[in-house]
Structure formats: structure tokens, C-alpha cells
Amino acid sequence: MKMASAAAAPLLLLLALAATAGAVTFDAINAVPDSAGGQRFDRDYGGVEYAKQVLSEASSFIWTTFNQSNPEDRVGYDSVTLTVVDNLQPGAVAVTIGNAIALRAQSVAETNGDAAAVKEGVNGVLYHEATHVWQWGLQDYTAHWGIFEGIADYVRLKAGLPAGNWGQPGEGKQWDEGYAVTAYFLDYCESLKSGFVAELNGKLKDGYNDEYFVQILGKTADQLWSDYKAKYSQG
Ligand SMILES: *[C@@H]1O[C@H](CO)[C@@H](O)[C@H](O)[C@H]1NC(C)=O
Ligand SMILES: [Zn+2]
Asked: Which residues form the signal peptide (predicted)?
């Protein structure tokens, strides 16, 4: 970049200070570079540098989705770290604790398809896991995990990265069964009121409460689920 003119310098300084105030560092570590999954992470996915870029883009996308342009509204982490590991329990693709995301190398190794398929699959997982880093209310995760997993997959859906094994909108038995079922239901709620998910996430800061649906949309979650199911049963 060329030097800015003297007149522009104070503005640049101001912008630099503003960026520092909300600065978050994104890190990625491939702890198992010699494993099949670790090798594929480096070769097909794009490695740690690409992962850091995706974590940064995912975080910006999440803050926008949550209507958190003001950093003071966000969960206060100053870093997010991805580690590619080979010791997560079988069946788990990734686990997020606080601001630390662990990705199971074997799940990268087992991805069907070419490098583009690996990129799309891992990026979908990273958008989901990064949502866990930034969403409010996880103190109630154990009692109400379905809403938190639903919001994480809602972000993945809105980012255009749904997984290939997701069902269709309108499927599912109850609104809070989590993941794609809840994600599609939340997307329906969002269609009733733009900003619904952002508002819900903001309220979750105080922990989960059934009343949030009534407060935002004037109906209980069960009523909204009935409306949603009726909409999709009309074919
Ligand atoms: C986003 O948040 C601001 C307050 O920070 C609020 O005024 C605005 O209505 C919100 N937008 C949506 C779409 O919820
Ligand atoms: Zn999750």
C-alpha cells in the first residue's frame, strides 16, 4: 500500500484505533499434519492460513446475523482458535468449548469428493462451530441444547453451507429437536419478522425462556411450530 497523504493520516489513525478496539485474533493449528485427515486438511482444504480467513469471515457473518455491529454487544472473546486433532470421540465432527474449536481429522479424511467438497464441508462445520463461540446463553445449553444447535445450523443455512444430509424445510417432530430441523423453523420465524434470530440471541444472554417467542412474535413456539407444519403440509 502506498503512503497516505498527510491530510488523510489522522483519519487512518482513527480507523486503526477503532479496528483495535474490536480486534479478534483468529488462529489455526494442524496438530496432526501426518495423519490422513491432517494431510487432506492441508492439501484439499487449504490449510491453516485459509482456515484463519474462514474463521474471520464466519465471525463477521455471525455478528451481522446477530445484529451486533457494536462489539460491546458481542461475547467478549479476543481470539478464536481452531485445532485439527485426531482424538475426538468417533461420531463427533467438531467440538467447541469457549473460543476453542477442535475439528476431528478423520472426518476430513472421510469426506467424499474433491477439494471443493472438503472446503464446503469444513466451512459449513466452521460456521456452525464459530456460532457456538459467539452465541449468547450457553449457560443453558444442557437443558435447551436444541435451540443452540438450531441457531448454529441457522447460521450455516444462511451462509449457504447446509450439509448434504439435511432434510427438507417442514420436516421434524418438534421445534426444538435441534440442528437442521430447528434451523429451518427459525428461518420460518425470521420470515415472519426480520431480525427475529438476532433478537432471540440477544435475549438468550439472560438464559433460555419460552416467553421469548411470545415477546418477539406474539405466539408460543408450539403455536409457531403448528403454523409452520401446516404451511408445509399444504404442499
Ligand atoms: C439492530 O440493533 C439495533 C440496536 O443496536 C436496533 O435498533 C435495530 O432495530 C436492530 N435491527 C434489527 C433488524 O433487529
Ligand atoms: Zn453444534
From this structure: 1-23
The atom of ligand 1 lying closest to the CA of 67 is: 1
Instruction: Report d(CA 203, CA 212) in Å as an integer.
Output: 7
Residue 78 CA: distances (Å) to CA of 20, 42, 71: 10, 26, 11
Which listed ligand is nearest to 64 at the C-alpha?
A: 1
Q: In this structure, what CATH number is given to the domain that contains residue 78?
A: 1.10.390.10
For ligand 1, whether the C-beta of 74 sits within 6 Å is: no
Mean pLDDT of 61-77: 97
Determine if ligand 1 sits within 6 Å of the CB of residue 67: yes
Atom of ligand 1 nearest to the CA of 199: 14
Mark which of 134, 161, 188 sits at the end of a domain.
134
Do 207 and 137 touch, CB atoms closer than 8 A?
A: yes
Residue 68 alpha carbon to ligand 1 centre in Å: 8
Looking at the fold, whether 114 and 66 belong to one and the same domain comes out as yes
Ligand nearest to C-alpha 151: 2
Q: Is the pLDDT of residue 66 over 50?
A: yes
